[in-house]
Design a protein that fits this description.
The structure is a homodimer of 173-residue chains. Chain A has helices spanning 15-27, 41-54, 66-75, 90-98, 114-119, 133-144; strands spanning 2-9, 32-37, 59-62, 79-89, 103-107, 122-125, 159-161, 170-172. Chain A has 173 residues and is an alpha/beta fold. Chain A has a six-stranded parallel sheet with strand order 3-2-1-5-4-6, sandwiched between helices. A two-stranded antiparallel sheet of chain A has the order 7-8.
Chain lengths: 173, 173
């Protein structure tokens, strides 16, 4: 079970990146995403709508206190992994991460409070280069689930794509 | 050699996602990114600045005609791979892609012209779920380069991160 915590969402500025974080979490096998920072019912609604159409049990919610989220997941036995370009390389820590059956993955936005580095059990970097929390999350999920997430089936989907060499084929239920 | 073509960039709306596409392309081993759609010197400058600080030879440029870009890369022997949720699953086509030593990877934004599906040698989906072109690009690069891109060294870097279990350590040259 893997839950994503998105830190420091800012209304307007982060709308699309934060939405991509939620959609990636869902598509690549996480159970839910929790947003903190500004309260943005728009992105939560949009992810819920996607989940309704495309199936599965993914949940999106808001919690104004990221500190409380981290502490409560710790108490419930979740390992806390924080993605940051300053942490230890993913490829060196992935075996240790895979041994954790319950994990809270934290992704930041512009400024991450230093306390997050201390609360985390793992600070993990996906390359030591500046790029994207969307990509870092995708690669962590892909490695954690060993590529099996690419074949994940979503229950009760109203829309389903039938892969094609060219063009588009969507089945509607 | 792998080049990324970002279709249909829109000023304002796509600024951050398109920037993330460029940074991900650079961090995960592509040689360059070409933007089409609206001309946005801001994102090209910002990627150039990143490359200057963090090293390597990555290039970012603009071309108003994506059609011309595709045709000219085809002529130069590049295979054309288009990322789309409607294509054939990445995990089924990755061996074929790895055999192509020169590749142009196309990532779309909101609406991709049908012609792109026809011009592409491969239409590839990374899951058949809606998510993010940033994540799809990251996973394609990661699979294409077999994870070796995570250890890529960037020449003449002015800034370099020394991975830490906690906190941040940046070396300045």
């Amino acid at each position: 079970m893997l839950v994503v915590l998105r830190l420091g969402h800012r209304l307007g500025r982060d709308e699309r990146i934060s939405t991509h974080c939620g959609l990636v979490a869902r598509a690549l096998g996480a159970s839910s995403i929790i947003y903190s920072g500004d309260h943005d019912s728009g992105i939560i609604e949009s992810i819920k709508k996607t989940a309704e159409s495309w199936g599965g049990k993914f949940k999106a919610e808001y919690n104004e206190s990221w500190r409380q989220v981290i502490k409560s997941y710790k108490k419930r036995g979740f390992a806390i992994a924080h993605l940051s370009m300053y942490g230890l390389p993913l490829q060196k820590k992935i075996s240790a991460l895979r041994r954790k059956k319950k994990m809270l993955v934290i992704i930041g936005s512009e400024k991450v409070p230093p306390e997050v580095y201390d609360l985390a059990d793992f600070n993990i970097s996906v390359t030591q280069q500046p790029h994207s929390e969307v990509a870092a999350l995708a690669l962590l999920l892909h490695e954690y689930f060993r590529g099996k997430e690419l074949k994940k089936q979503f229950s009760k989907a109203k829309l389903k794509i039938i892969p094609q060499e060219r063009g588009k084929k969507v089945e509607k239920d």
